[in-house]
Design goal:
The chain has about 160 residues and is mostly helical. The protein folds into two domains: about 70 residues, Rossmann fold; about 80 residues, no CATH class. The protein is built from eight helices and three strands; from the N terminus they run αβαβαβααααα.
């Protein structure tokens, strides 16, 4: 993208990404006058960096019907889309609460307020996300499933809210 922008080989760019790491490249391409249009595929919004979305000149989300206009899938689905098991045992829930409490207690009151603001949306800062999930992975010996992650993050925010009141 940068090479094409620098050589004035494009005026507009469609970027299919969600990684915040690309944001700097977007800024640099825009300095060369390139308009950058960020595209996600249906339901991508929560996984796209908020900062990247703000930096782009426009954002779009392609639906299945948008893609069918130029893509055809001639394959069978690799797996069935069964609902996730979101039940968490009382024992696991208690461990997740302890992890949340531990991480919340490590922050100063000022920092707790800042972290509450930063974690209000879907896109959490990587350092906080990694610390919580890494601690849980070490404790359980496995990566948390989506429901467990949501529970842990919710508990972390509750701990922050309770300690800032």
């Amino acid at each position: 993208m940068l090479t094409l922008a620098r050589n004035r080989a494009m005026a507009e760019c469609i970027l299919l990404s969600g990684d915040e790491d690309v944001r700097i490249g977007v800024q640099q391409a825009q300095e060369y006058g390139v308009r950058v249009h960020l595209v996600g595929i249906a339901h991508a919004r929560p996984s796209q960096s908020e900062f990247l979305k703000q930096e782009a000149d426009s954002t779009h989300e392609w639906t299945k019907s948008d893609l069918e206009a130029f893509l055809v899938c001639n394959c069978e689905p690799a797996f069935d889309h069964e609902p996730m098991n979101t039940e968490i045992s009382a024992e696991d829930a208690e461990i997740l609460r302890e992890i949340a409490q531990h991480h919340a207690s490590q922050l100063s009151d000022k920092k707790k307020s800042e972290v509450l603001q930063l974690t209000a949306g879907e896109d959490w800062p990587r350092n906080i996300h990694r610390a919580l999930l890494g601690h849980a992975k070490n404790k359980f010996g496995k990566f948390l499933e989506r429901g467990e992650q949501t529970f842990l993050k919710t508990e972390f925010r509750k701990q922050l809210e309770n300690s800032t009141e």
